[in-house]
Amino acid sequence: MTPPTTNIPNTPATLNDSLFVDEDxxxxxxxxxxxxxxxxxxxxxxxxxxxxxxxxxxxxPLKGMFGLDCVGGQSVVYLTLKDTPSSRTRRLVGxxxxxxxxxGSNEAQLLKDNLxxxxxxxxxxxxxxALPVDPENPPRLIIIDDVAHFVPNLDFNDPSAVGDFLRTVxxxxxxxxxxxxxxxxxxxERGGSLIEDTARRIWTVTxxxxxxxxxxxxxxxxxxxxxxxxxxxxxxxEEPLWFGMNSVDLAIDQPEKTIxxxx
Length: 263
Hints:
- This is AAA domain-containing protein.
- By secondary structure, the chain is α/β, with parallel strands linked by helices.
- It has helices at about 25-30, 40-55, 85-100, 105-115, 120-125, 160-175, 190-205; strands at about 15, 35-40, 75-80, 115-120, 140-145, 180-185, 205, 230, 240-245, 260.
- The strands form 3 sheets. A 5-stranded parallel β-sheet has the order 2-6-5-3-4, sandwiched between helices. Strands 7-9-8 form a 3-stranded antiparallel β-sheet.
């Protein structure tokens, strides 16, 4: 496979100590970018669940942002690596209370129609076709949230299984033109380091001072070259490492942006 000839500069991530989804996060999602948010488990997970809700219902603060008409009807797949229904419900109900979304309201109906929360087993069984996704309304965003314990049927002690999972999600995101966000917040004892190491192997780490990002295997993902800082355990590495991404002529004329990570 021939690498794309267009190179988009790597854009560093910056830390965001707010629980609110800001312009940089939303613009990155709407542009179909790939991002990794790193932070304390609950806070980062909460941030991305809020992003999913706001995009799915077209929350008022987002309307008109960056020329986007956020009026709802933009489906979001929130993919958990095993999460109990009660845990998801508690987080979502708490979030809806903060956003003052009332049962039976237009916002509640939009959320019901457009926010699809599922676990990794259902996704791996058949991609987006296995989920209640409207083919006329492909997802704007796919979120991988590794905050929860991993599903028994998916061996996340096996790097090849993790790699297969990440490749499958990437392929689905590319096929549907969706943005992809990986919430990487688990500690090593819960698989966080394996997720990170596997992602780094699949997507190739490059230093921000390198002239060009390496080509991204295994498929030509139509994702803009946004990268996120990764903490390095190597004392010789003074600057953070970055995920190097490529693009296939998507949003070439857009200004460089910084996508912020959850604190």
